[in-house]
Amino acid sequence: IIPKDNHVVSFLQIEAFYMNWTMDYSIIGAKAYAQLTDGTKVPGTIAKNGFIDIKDLPLSKDPIEIVVEVPGHLKSIQKLTLPGTKTPWGEVVGEYIQKPGAQPVAVAGDVNQDAMIDINDVIQAVAFYGKENKKADINQDGIVNETDIRFIEKNFLKVGPDVPKNKKPKEKLGNKGLADFLRAIGLEPIK
């Protein structure tokens, strides 16, 4: 049987779960898919161990994007070209491609999932500090705590790879910035 499509295997790299080998990545609410140049999304699966598996990708010289979306994180987008490979007799066939270390890290801190980490994420996390809240609990340990807040602080004002150039993260709410909100919950800024 000669494959007429491509099959890509990659690996999740998620900042809030980095080096957590006991995590079941299949249940954290993450999605993986390939986005073709025409906008078509080819769904993938995520295994317990964090491997991404996307099958039935068309042969194309146009780049595709392997996209990972994780709650509380900016998107991770890996660009690939999958033209297939030529057999000795000149037929173009699909490939099985492994890219386990190539997926960029999904940056933690995007609580409201607007593709940027800004004061709006700080406000939401601070509002639920010390409480249970699935959106603001970035590392999914059951409570919004200092760990979640520090991810936002570390990545403050970063934007996702798919943010339009004219969209900018908001640094302050009125005259209150990150440090003000941290101090309001008894934390000192690290930056």
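^ that was protein a. below is b, sequence first then the tokens
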Amino acid sequence: SHSDSAWVTVKPFCTEDGKEALICQTCGKILQKRESAAAGHSWGNYVVKKAATGQSEGLEERTCSRCGATEQRTIKKLTQKQMVEAYVTRLYTLVLERKPDANGLNAWVSQLMNGNNTGAEAAQGFIFSNEYLKKNTSNAEYVEMLYNTLLGRNSDAAGKKAWTAQLDKGIANREQIVEGFIHSPEFISIC
């Protein structure tokens, strides 16, 4: 008699079926078997690993919370309109420190896409807007904003010091500093 028996269970995993066996504790004979289907992955949200640009595809990845497996997919290259929308959004975010309103975003994108304004002119429109001027930023804050907005990066110490000194000493005004950034090879390659 196999009255002293117990179930031994191996739970299903993401890609492996689960198994159960009723085993006699006296003689070790398997009295009954059953299987349960693999649980499948529990994927999280995709996270961008490499942003898409107009020149290259991007990459995003998600991870299974159960087993740690990862899955990747390609992000298509940005269209011209997507690049312009990203640029205008950056102007709103970094210059005005707010999200773009739909009407303003659409108007600027339309102006740029139709060739009525250049990227430099759009930047100047934001930088010299009443909304930005009311922020009354220091020269150092102004220069840092230009690096972040126009060059897409934080300032380097020497560059920030040089631009800020020109403003502090009255060698150049803010309009002239913007012109210096806009005519730099770094900005031209971005915009």
